[in-house]
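Appendix B. Chain record.
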Amino acid sequence: MIYPTRTAIIAAAAGAPIALAVAILFPVQWYAGLAWSAAVIVLALVDAVARARPGAAGATLDLPATASVGAPIVALAHVTIDAAHAPATAEVALPPDPLVDATADGEAWIALDQGHGTAPIALATKRRGTARFTRLWVRWRGPLRLVWKQRIVAIDAHVAILPDIDAVQRRGSEIFRRHALQGLLAQMNRGDGSDFDALVEFRAGMDRRAIDWKQSARHLKLRAKEFRTERNNQIVFAIDAGRQMTDPIAGLPRLDRAVSAVLQNAWVALKLGDRASLFAFDSRPRLASGFVAGPGAFGELQRLAARIDYSGEEPNYTFALATLASRLARRSMIVLLTEFTDPTSAEFLVQSAARLMRTHLLLVVVLRDDDLDALAERVPEDVDDVTRAVTAAALLRERLLVLTRLRHMGAHVVESEYDRVGERLIAAYLDLKRRNLL
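Structure tokens predicted for this chain:
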């Protein structure tokens, strides 16, 4: 693509007063006044065909594989103009992406050395997901600076924008140390687990039902079996990515807060030897991963979490949870992070949860809406405040009714503040594990 620069447009426009003056002073030779504009056009045509053509340009874009939400990253644009007389400078521009903000609108000048050059473009991530760039604009001026020569280069560059992994691992480590999970958990659960750990000498305070009478007779001393909490449990994190999960709480969508809490819990679960899996859905299942095990698999869960996209569709609990149940060959713990407001979707959730709990352990996690609580508790000052308070109280009442029904059915429910959901989820997981319910 070739088009005029601002200089060429101004120069051509400057010929209009000259043409008008010639037409007034010399009416017979009025056409002589067009000489200026015609000369500008001819020079622009010469500038367009001189030196490098637009087709000689090529470009690539280097991006980091992953980045955290809110973190600055640098994209490196590499430009090559394969021509005998390449320009000294060129300009590149990135298309906008809803997940990132680019400084200077994603534009940057590149100094070229024999047709090759590289320029950094500063980006700032603002939402979780996968930012993709499929094209890159490259343009440069002709030698007379009257035309732009531009080419749109097709590229395939993407970066997985994840939750703040540093915060996930930092808070996970704090919780891990707080509960003294390595070694101490087995001591806390001695006699409560289902996996045989060791045969030890019976001591005062131990459960007499753990005495192994055959081994005691053989050793002429009382011997007792010691158990530990079962490992290798299957944990499925089912995340509702529907319309209501995209509503923001304190400036961040519910979905992002749910994903951060899931990653914190998954980090602890993998440390404890359990297996973790991700499942995301809205009107239909969108992501269903296999189970991974070991701390080294946490990176795989990070990459999978980046693929959970925002959706404007209503969640279909019946379809999603039935599909999830059909994929599970053994009893698993299903952690469902969701949000509901209308009674219809809540009824579907309760019915689907009842079928799921026939085989599996269900933990439902919802975020408490502080704004809704504030509206219900606010002292009304006018009629509008009364309407808002009544509506908020009705929504909270329906929400409490649904959560109570889930508890009565046997599901475990966590209703947490947005800034403590990760910690509350891990505490519930450890409690269920400690009670050997997984």
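Further analysis of this model is presented in Appendix C.
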